[in-house]
Structure formats: C-alpha cells, structure tokens
C-alpha cells in the first residue's frame, strides 16, 4: 500500500547541511493504523511531508499503491498540528471542508452532502456557518479532520494533530480518530511525540532514533481492537508496551530494565 | 464622537473670531460665516458642480487604474521567483520620486487634459498599492500553503483561495492610502497646470480676489478627503470581517 524505502532528506541552505532523515524504510498495509513516534527534532514532520508529496526526498522513494509519490496525491489527506493556521480564517467551517472538493469539480449537491456527512462524523453537525476562529481548539481540529474525511482519502496522514489541545479534548479526539479509522477502513499514518498516544492508537508503532534518523524498531501493539481510555491505559500489556517504546527512545536499549524509570516519567497524557 | 464635534466647533469659533477681532485682516481670512455664505453661493453654481465632477473623475479613474495595476503587478512580481529581486532596486528608485516632480512631463505629454491628472494620480497611487501587495503576499502562512497543496489546489487555486485572501488586508490598506494620495495629486495638478477641476477653481478664485470662495472650495476639498477616508474604512471593515483586526468574537 504505502511503502517508504531508504528515505533520506538533507536540507541545504546558507552553507549549512542538516541531515533530517538518514535512512527510513517501512511499509503500511491497506487499512492499517500505524503510529510514528520519536524524540523531538528527529524529523517526524519532514517524514510526513515527504510522504505527502510536499517535500522531495534527497534519496530513496515513497510509493503509494506501487506509484511513486512525486507531488500531492488525490488519495492522500493531511491533518496538520497547527489547526489555527491550516484552516482558512476567511472561510466558514463548511467552506473550509468544501474547498478541496470544489477543486475536484464535484457537483454542488454531492459536495454539500459529503461536507455535512463529514461534519456529522466528527460531531460538529451544527457549526457549519461559524468561522473556525469562533470555535475552541479541539473543535477546530475536528473541522480539520472533517476536511480530510470529506476528501475520502485512502491514506490519512496526521502530524501531531493533538499536541496543542488539552488532555481531556485530546482523549476524546484520540477515540474519535480510532473510531473513524475502524468505520472507514482508511490507512492512517499518525505522527506523534507522545508515547502513550502512539501505543493507545496504533496497531504498530514505528520508533525513530534521534537525528540522523533511522527506524529503530517496529513494535506491534498487541491490544484488543476495542480500546478505552480507562481500561486500556490500565492494562498491563499497555504499560509494558509503553515502557518498551520509552526505553527504545531513551537509549535504544531493551525494555526490561527500563520499566521502573518509565513508571515515573511517562509522557504526560495519562488520564 | 462628541469630543470630535466639539473640536470642530472650537475651530469654527476661532475662525470666526480671529478676523472679527482684527487679529488677521479679513481680506486674507474672511470670517467662517462669510466663508459659509460663499460656500452657499458655490453650491448653486453649476460650474462648481462640474469642477467637482472633474476632480472626482480624475481621482476615481486614477485610483482604479493604480489599484488594478498595483494588484496585478504585485501578484506577478511576488509569485514569480526571482522577479522580486529583479525589480526591487527599480521599485526602490522609482517609488520615492515625488509625483509633482513629474508635472512638467505631464504638461509636455498631455497639456492640461484629464490625462495629465491621470498620469500623476496613477503614478502616486500605484506605488502605495504595489508595495502593500508585495508585503501581503509575503505574509502567506507556510502551513496554509502546505494545506492547500496537500489538498490538491493548483497554482491558480492557491492564488485565489490562499494568497489573495491573505494579501487582502494589505491591499485594503494600500488602496486607502492610495485614495488619499490620489485626491491630493488630483487637486495639486489642477491647481498647478490648470486642468479643469476643484484645484483650478481654487486658483481662479484666488487670482480674482474671491477670497471667501477660495476658502469655501478648500473646505470642500477637505470634506472630500474625510469622506473618502471614511468610505475606504467602511469598505475595509466589511471586506475583512474575518480578519483579527476587525472581528469581534475572541477565539474560545
């Protein structure tokens, strides 16, 4: 489905060379939800932009359904972290969600139907006439998710989408994303710096190393498909996985000796 | 509002008192009420209305041309790579030339026709708009740009839905400044080269010793300036209701 092979990205400018990504290889099967987690500054956003076709890789390739990604693709939607800047303040909520569909020359009635369906799906059926800046942060991010849903992508890319909302809203949005993913069967690549979030959401977690970045390990999340903020997070398997991922991020080491440390310094979104 | 009106009243009272008390000869500064009488006379004179029409025509046409040219040139220069660097030194050289310095050129080219007024009005107003458009396009948020690209908006759609709305507040400021400059230039050119309009009429009143009429016409020109500025601000508020400088609801 989505395949990333030997991806390398070097930024060059004003005499400085920054190697953001060294060598990333991984693949996503159709309908998978995979989280990418890594220390801050390890090039997660760069990775996502390369996958989205917004940045050209220095080396390596990204292929979607066997076709190399060389620019933005119709089957691929992105939800950015900065919802306030990603939604256009001069457009009402419905216009924001509708804009990509207008570009596809979709007939007006079909457009309207899909926009209201997408807004209903994120629980915002009644704010279509509002401007994004009249809504709370969590609601704005829901609008951005609705915009991506209305686009009906095969692959949904999410770049730390909940980093800027409060803990309670964040938990709600996590459940929303998992619910939408299960109902719609999209492939989701979810980038986050939050280990708990990665384990809670993903079927697999790709752990990245610090810069120069490589995939340190793929952790399969063996948790039931039905997840719950209270019981799942209290599950021994959850805490074990979380400690293992934290250990990998900390010093690339094993998990067993990290458990005690991990218990004290989780990544902060426990609920 | 009330302190503003009070200020105007005080000014009018001073204007009335100074010549009446003999502080300034009323041959140079007729009292306010005398000026108002002259203004009443002007308002009943068809020649006044045609002069006002001429001035407004020069102003509006010049402003429209300058705005269209400034917006178009600004968008092209700012969105085509390297064009900005290529033009920046030329813009910085041409922009500071005071428009009135081009009056002799206008006379050479067009004499005292409307085209002379237009040339200078357009020249002065164009830069105001152009510079603002250049700033405005630079202000496009990279996240908004990435969003638009990711969702399949092509270059034209991005100019229309992202670049233009981002630049619009700047464009509005540019047009408001240009509107004021255009009026100044229109009246100046009429006054100096005798193209038909309020400026010319002021000059005629002055040379024929009709001092109260001269002041009445100056008052009219001032009121025009106030009206134009108020109108521009109204348009700005309506067009930018979504913008953070205008919108009332604070984000939750």
Which terms would index this structure?
heterodimer; A: 271 residues; alpha/beta; ten-stranded mixed sheet; 10 strands; 24% strand; disordered C terminus; B: 252 residues; mainly alpha; 10 helices; elongated
Average pLDDT of chain A works out at 87
Strand content of chain B: under 5%
Radius of gyration of chain A: 19 Å
User: In angstroms, what separates the terminal alpha carbons of chain B?
Assistant: 32 Å
Helix content of chain B: over 70%
Rg calc of chain B:
22 Å
Q: Which structural class matches the secondary elements of chain A?
A: alpha/beta
How many β strands of chain B by DSSP?
0
Beta strand count of chain A = 10
Helix fraction of chain A by DSSP (H/I, runs of at least 4): 25-40%
Describe the strand arrangement of the main beta sheet of chain A, using strand numbers: 5-4-1-2-10-9-3-8-7-6
Major β-sheet profile of chain B: none
Q: What percentage of amino acids of chain A are in beta strands?
A: 15-25%
Which sequence of SSEs, written as H and E, runs from N to C of chain A? EEEHEEEHHHHEHEHEEHHH
Mean pLDDT of chain B: 91
Number of helices of chain B: 10
Are there runs of chain B of 5+ residues with pLDDT below 50, and where?
none
Give a quick rundown of the structure.
The complex is a heterodimer of chains A (271) and B (252). With 271 residues, chain A is an alpha/beta fold.
Describe the structure.
- The complex is a heterodimer of chains A (271) and B (252).
- Chain A is of the alpha/beta class and 271 residues long.
- Helix content of chain A is 38%, strand content 24%.
- Chain A has ten helices and ten strands.
- In chain A, strands 5-4-1-2-10-9-3-8-7-6 form a ten-stranded mixed β-sheet, with helices on both faces.
- Chain A is globular.
- The two termini of chain A are 34 Å apart.
- Chain B is built from ten helices and no strands.
- In chain B, helix 3 runs parallel beside helix 6.
- The longest helix of chain B has 39 residues.
- Chain B starts with a helix and ends in a 13-residue tail after the last helix.
- Chain B is mainly α.
- Chains A and B meet through strand 6, helix 2 and helix 3 of A and helix 7 and helix 8 of B.
